[in-house]
Amino acid sequence: MIDLEAISNAKVATEPFSFFATPQVLSDADLEKIRDDFPVIEKPGVFPLSSLEYGPAFSRLIDDIRSPELAQRVGDKFGVDLRGLPLLITVRGQAQAKDGRIHTDTKDKVVTCLLYLNEKWDNSGGRLRLLRNGDNLEDFAAEVPPSGGAFAAFKVAGNSWHGHKPFVGQRRYVMFNWVRSDAALNRQLGRHKLSARIKKLIPFFYKGKLSDQPGVIRDAPGGTIPTT
């Protein structure tokens, strides 16, 4: 499913940190099947795969993400050997107003990848920005619209700042991170599983409450907890 050549052919930027993006790594036909089989996610936040149910096309996408070939291609882009490193996979379906605040990823992570699964993205909010500093969302080196099939990746560093303008509504992606050790994987999974359990206990009020904030895009088709 994933076009490995598109990843291999993407140009890596090295300033302000190492990253690359490519607008299309999935065919329109595969993207449509994956969207049909996407897990039902009604609450914001990122969810570990073990907490979700999904169909066969989405499952095939996950198999591609787990493949050693993808680890090889992404690792080659950044000059790191990702093969054999534990892989953390999480999924987002909804965004809330507070998502997208500027952050860097935890030091447990070696490389972060985002594969977007939305329709064509025309909104100004929710576009991933790869930033030159941790203070100004407008000072960005690149902006990636989260349209379906778009792929972005960066090598995690102390200055790998990123975020996006506020957006409330459906915003689908798979995020996957190669992490430094099994202990690091267990820490990350434990945190996400706890968050998922808490969300199940809390009534779903996010859209109604948060979309009333001024300047927030409401009910558009389409985060990130501060980890992307």
The main sheet orders its strands as 1-7-4-9-3-2
How many helices?
6
Question: By helix and strand content, what is the structural category?
Answer: alpha+beta
- Overall 3D shape: globular
Order of helices and strands: HEHEHHEEEEEEEHH
CATH superfamily: q2cbj1_9rhob like domain
What is the percentage of strand-forming residues?
15-25%
**How many distinct domains?**
1
State the CATH topology: Jelly Rolls
CATH-defined architecture = Sandwich
**Level of helix content?**
25-40%
- Please report the first level of CATH classification, the CATH class: Mainly Beta
* Main sheet properties: 6 strands, antiparallel
How would you explain this protein's 3D organization?
The protein has 228 residues and is α+β, with helices and mostly antiparallel strands. The protein has one domain (4-210): Jelly Rolls, CATH 2.60.120.620. Helices cover 27% and strands 22% of the residues. The chain contains 6 helices and 9 strands; from the N terminus they run αβαβααβββββββαα. It has helices spanning 4-9, 28-36, 56-65, 68-78, 182-201, 206-210; strands at residues 19-22, 46-48, 87-95, 109-116, 128-131, 140-144, 151-155, 162-163, 169-179. The protein has a 6-stranded antiparallel β-sheet with strand order 1-7-4-9-3-2, with helices on both faces. β5 (128-131) and β6 (140-144) form a beta hairpin. The protein is globular, with a radius of gyration of 16 Å. The model is unreliable at 204-227 (pLDDT under 50).
